[in-house]
Structures are given as structure tokens and as C-alpha cells.
């Protein structure tokens, strides 16, 4: 490197030593990167992932391509996941509050963008670019495939079938304390007093096994020649539910009193919003799809 003198000649640049004798080296301390939230600012990381796409997307919403929409949704999804993981292990109370506020804002923005993309008819494809598009799992033989999905109703994983129909259960049709005992109702159906599809009293159906079979057949559309669309239940969790304190396998948060719960015909239960978001991706039951 050279610098220009006043007379126009080039003079080689030499860097002057800063402290210490010439020729002496500086010892470097070994650096071990840490992934703990106390040493890694996950809030700044989440902000960096999202950037200012909210302002830019609002300005060019009409011209936004499907690729840009997918990219924005993926960044928000990654940012919310980063915040959730960081909050669990963060011991800094002030930063944790900032992260919770940011998580709430990004979650609302994520749901808004997903709804906007769905209403605009944009296909949100979660497949890796360049991979073969498929709506069913890749399988070697039919026997292995049937063995994996033996306990799953066909309508929950058959891509050729129609979408699941949502059935909202009235609060009056949930089990009232004293109306049904735990002996008369199975643990799987302990929240239900009547069948939410045909409205028959489960107490009249028989024992727990008969009750489960009856509700399962109704949710799967029956066994007639022209079965109806498969259904899943949605209801508000009562205070006496056996699901209280159980984790939803999608969001890993516990069910609490008043939570809106969705229950599939395989008797797996999730938060209603979690299952709705999961089914929009074309997935089967989150538990049996593993």
C-alpha cells in the first residue's frame, strides 16, 4: 500500500506498532462460542431475521410474488421460533419481557400474512426448492405403509379425500359434574356427555369401548355406502377435564381451563388454532404422522 506525497511521489505505507516492543506478538485468547441466551442476543437475532419487511410488504402488496410471500412467512416463523426457544432459558427479566412483547407482535403478523396469502390464492409450498412435489409420504411398499398407518383413520392421511369438517361442541353437551361418573365415561371421552355428531347420549351407548367406537365412527363419516366428510371436534375445555396440564404436541404448551381444544377421531387432542394451522399444510394427525 502506498500514499501520495506532496511532490507527487509514492511512498510505501508502513503501519506503526501500537504499544509494546516491535516484533512482539499479541497472545490471542481461545474463544468458545456459546449458544446460551445470556451470551447470545436472541431478540436482536429475531429482529434481524424479520428486518423491516412489514413496511416494505405494505408498500408493494399487490406486486408481491409468491416467492416473496413465502420468504416473509418463513422469516417470521423462524423469528418466532427463535424467540420461544430463547425465552425458555433466558434469565434476564428485562430482555425476556422484550422478547415476549416481540413474540406476540410477530405471531400476530405471521397469522395475518398467512391469512392474506390464503385469501389471495397463493400456494404456500413447504417443500424444498427443486424437490419432487408429493402429497403423500414416499414409501417402498404398500405393506410397510399400511403398517405405519394401521391405527390412523384412512380419511386422516388419504390425500384424495376431502378436507376435515370442523364440528363445534356446545358447552351444554359437555360433561356436567355428577351427570356422568368416571366409571360410565372413558378417559378419552370424559369431556363429552353426548355424541357431538348424532347428539345421542353416550350414557345410552354402553361402556367406554362402545362410546369410543360410536364417536369414532360418527367422526369418520359412518360406514354407509356414501360416507360423509370426516370431522373433528372443537370445544372449550371445562374445569373438570382430564386434559388440564397435558401438553399440546404442536406448540408444547399445556392445556388450561377455557382453552379451545380440537380432537380428531383418533382421540388425539390439540389446541384448535394449532391443529387448524397444521391441517393447512396438508398434514395428517401430528402424532400418527411421525
TrEMBL record:
From the UniProt record, give one GO term of the biological process aspect: proteasome-mediated ubiquitin-dependent protein catabolic process
Cell location: Endosome; Lysosome; Membrane
Domain of life (superkingdom): Eukaryota
Q: Name one GO molecular function term.
A: ubiquitin protein ligase activity
Q: Which residues form the RING-type domain?
A: 248-288
**Reaction(s) catalysed by this chain's protein:** S-ubiquitinyl-[E2 ubiquitin-conjugating enzyme]-L-cysteine + [acceptor protein]-L-lysine = [E2 ubiquitin-conjugating enzyme]-L-cysteine + N(6)-ubiquitinyl-[acceptor protein]-L-lysine
Q: Which UniProt keywords apply?
A: Endosome, Lipoprotein, Lysosome, Membrane, Metal-binding, Myristate, Transferase, Ubl conjugation pathway, Zinc, Zinc-finger
Which pathway does this polypeptide act in? Answer: Protein modification; protein ubiquitination
Q: Secretion signal: which residues?
A: none
Question: One Pfam annotation, family name?
Answer: zf-RING_2
Query: Which E.C. number(s) belong to this protein?
Result: 2.3.2.27
A cellular-component GO term for this protein: endosome
Q: How does it sit in the membrane?
A: Peripheral membrane protein
Please state what the protein is called: RING-type E3 ubiquitin transferase
